Amino acid sequence: MKTQPAVMVVVDIHVSFPQPVTKEEFHQRATRLMDELIALNECNDDIADPVVSSDAGESLLTVEVVVVSDDPFEATSTALTVLRTALHAAGAGTSGWPTVSRMENRAESLPDPLFT
Predict the structure, then answer these.
(1) Region for 71 from its dihedrals, namely left if φ exceeds 0, alpha if ψ lies in -120 to 50, beta otherwise
(2) Which domains does the chain carry?
(3) How buried is residue 103: exposed, middle or buried, by Cβ count under 10 Å (0-12/13-18/19+)?
(4) Distance (Å, whole) CA 58 – CA 60
(5) Neighbours of 33 (CB within 10 A)
(6) C-alpha torsion 72→89→46→53, nearest 10
(7) Distances in whole angstroms, Cα of residue 66 to Cα of each of 9, 24, 27, 58
(8) pTM across the whole model
(9) pLDDT tens per residue across span 63-83
(10) Residue 113 reports pLDDT greater than 60
(11) Average pLDDT over residues 82-91
(12) Which domain of life is it from (predicted)?
């Protein structure tokens, strides 16, 4: 069996809404994003183990995706493409969804190959 290197890409999305949303509404949007990431994970062998966490108090969504790659730049590009697709599928970019006020990302090669 051939092992494949992987990179963990983490993206922090700081959002603002045109109108106030409740904590429950914020977390529901995070759940929709997670659902879309899971759907993309099922049809894309280059990604694995997506995770979305939400902090309504800070208006922050944190997305983690493992990308099969040994190149952090390539992995970041793949992760951001998948994230953009998931955001659009979840309804972002349409009326009523928040505006991204700041986005930060980081990538870290995982110490042991995860995929065989």
Answers:
(1) beta
(2) 6-109 (3.30.70.100)
(3) middle
(4) 5
(5) 23
(6) 60
(7) 6, 27, 22, 25
(8) 0.80
(9) 999 999 989 999 999 999 999
(10) no
(11) 90
(12) Bacteria
In this prediction, residues 49-57 reach a mean pLDDT of 95
**What confidence score (pLDDT) does residue 1 get?**
40
* Model confidence pLDDT, tens digit, residues 35-51: 999 999 999 999 999 99
Q: How many residues does the chain have?
A: 116
Please give the backbone phi and psi of residue 48, each rounded to the nearest 5 degrees, phi first: -155, 160
Copy the structure tokens of residue 82. 């998948």
Integer angstrom CA distances of residue 114 from 1, 4, 41, 55, 65: 12, 7, 16, 29, 13
Q: Check residue 17 and report its DSSP letter.
A: -
Integer Cα distance of 70 and 53 in angstroms: 25
CB 35 within 8 A of CB 102: no
Write down the H helix ranges in the chain: 23-43, 72-89
